[in-house]
């Protein structure tokens, strides 16, 4: 981690510097393990629900959309709790413990589950206990995520203030470095979950695969609490709160105005998240119906692992942008160069239109070949254009949105600011669920079917592409109405 950038201007004492870097590292590692555990469950969950619980495709997809929506909504609730009442450390500790309980229940569902005939794909009716365990595991992991993800980044930023100075004093370079390392840790966790954990589930079964998620979450909890004596903590005490929301009504009104002002820009991230993050279940089904063989004889990439190509694209683009594009353009212009947050968001949204369009085209070709040339499957490598463009779109849009919210909202709302981009995922999941339900009903289940060769998943993708194009036009209008960002004025 870039120690000099992280602690620029913070302290002249070597011991506080080392402690701050160490505690930030532990916080980010704990967050990464929580992501590893959660995302280890997500990719193959569509296969788990359809194969082990006998659910239909549309039913299982809607359950997963709802799970995603709740998981991404609770961090906003947690952020308000952390900023106004509990403080960040207690909330992260509570959330990580609840998440661990949820992972344990997920593992229990692999033991107490309906009996299914693998040859006919017919399962016995689920019992109330089985459904209770399944839905409870979803609920607890969502509640736990609300505690962990709402405060992790803001709590890491607190470590840059060893003398409890104002968060506005954090150097821009330190903040940018922290955001970059935060996303690097998340991308690493996503890479491992979609490669290693999905491989374990596919090769060794659900019990061992889900058990790995439990172990990862247990390590996250242990790591976070082990470093508790060394954290910098800001407490929310009754009558002595450092939260300006409680100090005067005028400030509350101003804070609310700031939140309302960023909402139009925030809303543009809903469709972008729908494109890059809400198609996981459908892509797993696509990949399962495609040729997944590799140049390694006898090895096939698991259907749930294709998402790691988007993670790789995300990470490589960040490295290319920071180490090649920015220095090269700065050298050419003979002055420091950085794309503004609005520009990065706009380019990311534009790429998302192209991204989903490639996926629709690939699905059209795949379905046509599957129907006309029985026994001939299209190579799953044709999913890579979507993955590559999706990773670039996310790298531009998601990081820019996080920086935008953090710099535009008052410092008293720092926890809320770091969860707003995640709230896009919650809204996107609900919108996706609504679209799938409407499409399923209006087309008489002609687009989204149990056998995707008989459906028209490509039509669904083109519908999303149309919404993405409208979203791009909407963003242009919102960005012009908003004006200049504070971060761009400072730079």
TrEMBL record:
Its main location: membrane. CDD domains: MFS_NPF1_2 (cd17416). Keywords: Membrane, Transmembrane, Transmembrane helix. The chain crosses the membrane at residues 21-41, 61-82, 89-112, 178-200, 206-232, 259-285, 305-329, 341-360, 380-399, 459-477. It holds the Pfam family PTR2. InterPro entries: MFS_trans_sf, POT_fam. It comes from the Eukaryota. GO terms for cellular component: membrane. It is found in: Membrane. It is a multi-pass membrane protein. One of its GO terms (molecular function) is transmembrane transporter activity. Belongs to the major facilitator superfamily. Proton-dependent oligopeptide transporter (POT/PTR) (TC 2.A.17) family. This is Major facilitator superfamily (MFS) profile domain-containing protein. It comes from Arabis nemorensis.
